[in-house]
Design goal:
Chains A, B: Its cofactor is pyridoxal 5'-phosphate. Two copies of one chain form a homodimer. With 500 residues, the first copy, chain A, is of the alpha/beta class. Chain A has 17 helices and 14 strands. Chain A has a seven-stranded mixed β-sheet with strand order 3-9-8-7-6-4-5, sandwiched between helices.
């Protein structure tokens, strides 16, 4: 099927992109394409501007049901393959955003289609269990061969959840329970605690806090949202908790050219973290946990050094706060390691690591002592979805079999080097290229320019995502090869050359 | 396949249950079984006590990974059919709890298996979209033929979410946004609002509240948990909001025998609701919304009259609060109507209706004016899961084709009448039988007795759930026929007769 699709659509191929490139084809290399051919197209193919007429029609239809303000276009997922997303107007785009970074190995990967056609798997899809009370026989094995096979250092326990927000919400709950149990020691909860908890009052519902960072993003449910500080529109009008917000380092890029300045900035932020912990303890709202992303994603792809994270982890330990690393967007291989925190080189990187997106369902790993002491304290009806774990097992097999983390490292280097070249070539438009693996970003001079460039790139067959105020973020699938990097750089170069 | 399974396991059949029944077979009627035969077994079949040895072995294995304190036993979902859940030790139980009320038409229903084997559906399972930005072509149609075809009165808009908690969290957000926009009128948010929102402070994050009811359950994430008041252990140690909690009527059953007393109790609660609304407004934490279940489920299956809900709805209207009906557990047909609030007979029952469980994914319907004014205010990566909507379409087809709501009404009457008889026969053990459709409950004399009865019933092949302090709740699938009611009543009668 994939082969016939490819031959049907061969007309618009790499050649078109070479033609599109204003400054010639210096990035194009066909050799690397070969391994992809089975389930990938060989280039974008555009027939309309985007959104095209069919997308606009559907937008009107959906507008009767939902707010469609965020919708880019409607998709033909059947025809999408590998790194290419096909829309309902027949446009085929190189997808470097991958459903907000949630498609691990491309569209319609044969290994995942096989999961669907295996009759042994039918029942897992059709009978969604209440995992917390009636798990299927293969649940311990499936979780061991999928999630636990990639568990962060020092962690042998994992709790699945349905999505990223629920993962962080429940991780925070586990932190609060752990913190209060530490304080309580061998004592059982008092009647006063039990009674006041029923009406949302202290001491049963204590005034504990989670320290988060300006620019951080951890989800949009009320608990998560109290630790999210990416954009005002996400938070406006929603009641919140008086929890401390520390500055996240604003580093200068490339990192290795500003070592001294960046170290000073990181020291400033760490000092503020300790001050806030002390201040909130004095306020009677002690910090039970610190939550942070290894790379702030929604907030604008902000990096910090391994040294910063090591020191922060030590501060957490010193003050008795749990250290929660949110890998919802960074986890799953995009940085060239399965977890971005592996770049820190620590044996004991965290107490809690949450995930979702590329892992296909949500959840969090945790240290033994972070497991709730009683049943039903961390609980809901579904507690995840075993059908998503079936897919994850296959994703992990493909990652291992095809050495995709090495591929990501290789493609990532090519991508970052290309971005360096482009910002050198267009210094009035682009700056601050940065990244780890293919988890890269570059800033435009302002938000209007950023948006215009992204729309132009889309009309030329490249789908990108924005983040922060004026950042373009790159979030390709793990099957994004050097060949695709070159395709992208050609098109992007062309967009920039035409940009007024 | 289903047929061969049935013949393989015919050995333990209805006859066994007749034998089990101490007081004879007065409830047994074979005729009603016929329509079920295609995908249902014809009786429980027990080979070990539950959990059996294989379950216990798996419990140890999973105990290395998670807290297993809530786990009943491990299941063989492949062999489970219709109303029967099969465990890993070969025990086959009549399931009257259905994964905490989340299995709408039984296990391995042929209509759902067909969804899986239709090649046109493959891509929907394999490519999970970010629905808020890149929906599939068929999304408006699928949502129209599934969720909107059963939309509550007066609602044409629905927002899907992944689970029940996320549904309520986002419904609350929609309520807060609506409430502040009403207050704001034609003005845009001030800079002070935008800036303070980023650090969780008023006026950007205003001190608004949601009024909920003692005994209510709306989920366990931090926002939901502030409106949940079922058990202290669910809330202990988790920071919360200072939101008002009203008393839910404690009615006497059967309802029609205590009309006057119950009306007084409901009036008392409604008065308290109005007092709380005034009090919280004076506190500077105005009530933006009222959230309530049509029947309090986790809190102990507490009912209130249509009159109570009508008056409450009017109070909400009078004070400018949104009226949010949480149908996560009651929705989907178990009460004999698709939504429990349909029993109130109102044209304008609610501003928001949330759902999950039997609807297979979460979400909420809402009035037009409750739609967020801007994109990304109600948003997350997945915003639901179209593969669950595929199943839901089929579930709705089966409900219509097989008149399952009528069946539920019929089975429900038989069930409730049976419970009345049993509480008359065993007044020292059972009381307060109540229900709507098959959404029934009965109280034991104390929690230890309740738990012991449930375990004994399980060992005899009937799986039940508890709620509240000492309540047994009945949550069968919609394919639970009078035949199954009689099977259950026989076994339950036997348990009670043997109970010391």
């Amino acid at each position: 099927m994939a082969t016939s699709l490819i031959s049907r659509q061969l007309a618009f191929s790499l050649q078109k992109n070479v033609w599109l490139s204003a400054s010639g084809c210096r990035y194009v290399s066909k050799a690397a394409a070969k391994t992809q051919v089975e389930f990938d197209y060989d280039g974008p193919s555009m027939t309309t501007t985007v959104p095209g007429p069919r997308s606009q029609e559907l937008m009107k239809q959906l507008g009767q049901i939902q707010n469609t303000g965020a919708i880019n276009f409607f998709c033909n997922y059947e025809e999408s393959k590998g790194n290419y997303l096909v829309d309902v107007d027949g446009n085929r785009m190189l997808d470097i955003y991958t459903q907000i970074s949630s498609i691990p190995i491309g569209y319609n990967h044969p290994a995942l289609l096989k999961v669907m056609t295996n009759p042994n798997n039918l029942s897992t899809f059709v009978n969604r269990p209440a995992l917390g009370i009636l798990p299927p026989e293969n649940f311990p094995d499936k979780i061991t061969e999928s999630l636990l096979s990639v568990a962060p250092s020092g962690m042998t326990r994992v709790q699945t959840m349905s999505c990223g927000a629920c993962s962080n919400e429940n991780a925070y709950k586990a932190i609060f329970i752990w913190y209060r149990n530490k304080e309580r020691g061998p004592n059982t909860p008092t009647n006063e605690e039990l009674n006041t908890s029923m009406i949302n009052q202290a001491p049963g519902c204590p005034e504990l806090s989670i320290l988060s960072f300006m620019g951080g993003f951890h989800g949009r449910t009320l608990g998560c949202l109290a630790t999210t500080h990416s954009k005002a529109i996400h938070k406006l009008d929603i009641p919140s908790f008086d929890w401390p917000v520390a500055p996240f380092p604003r580093l200068q890029y490339p990192l290795d050219e500003f070592t001294r300045e960046n170290a000073e900035e990181e020291a400033r932020c760490l000092e503020e973290v300790e001050d806030l912990i002390v201040k909130w303890r004095q306020k009677g709202k002690p910090v039970a946990g610190i939550v942070i992303e290894p790379i702030q994603a929604e907030g604008g792809d902000n990096h910090a050094s391994p040294d910063f994270f090591q020191r922060l982890r030590n501060i957490a330990r010193k003050h008795g706060c749990a250290f929660h690393v949110d890998e919802v967007q960074t986890g799953g291989g995009g940085t060239g390691k399965f977890w971005a925190h592996e770049h820190w080189g620590m044996d004991d990187p965290a107490d809690v690591v949450s995930f979702s997106k590329k892992l296909l369902s949500g959840g969090y790993y945790h240290k033994d002592e972070l497991q709730a002491d009683k049943p039903y304290r961390i609980f809901n009806t579904w507690m995840g979805d075993p059908s998503k774990n079936l897919f994850l097992s296959e994703v992990l097999n493909v990652i291992r079999r095809e050495n995709l983390l090495e591929e990501v490292t290789r493609s990532g280097k090519a991508l970052l080097n290309g971005l360096y070249e482009l910002q050198a070539q267009y210094p009035s438009i682009l700056s601050r290229a940065r990244g780890q693996g293919t988890f890269c970003a570059i800033d435009a001079c302002d938000d209007a320019t950023r948006d215009r460039i992204m729309l132009k790139a889309r009309d030329k067959g490249v789908l990108l995502g924005g983040c922060g105020d004026r950042t373009i973020r790159f979030r390709p699938a793990l099957v994004f090869k050097e060949y695709h990097v070159n395709l992208f750089l050609n098109i992007f170069n062309d967009v920039l050359a035409q940009h007024k």
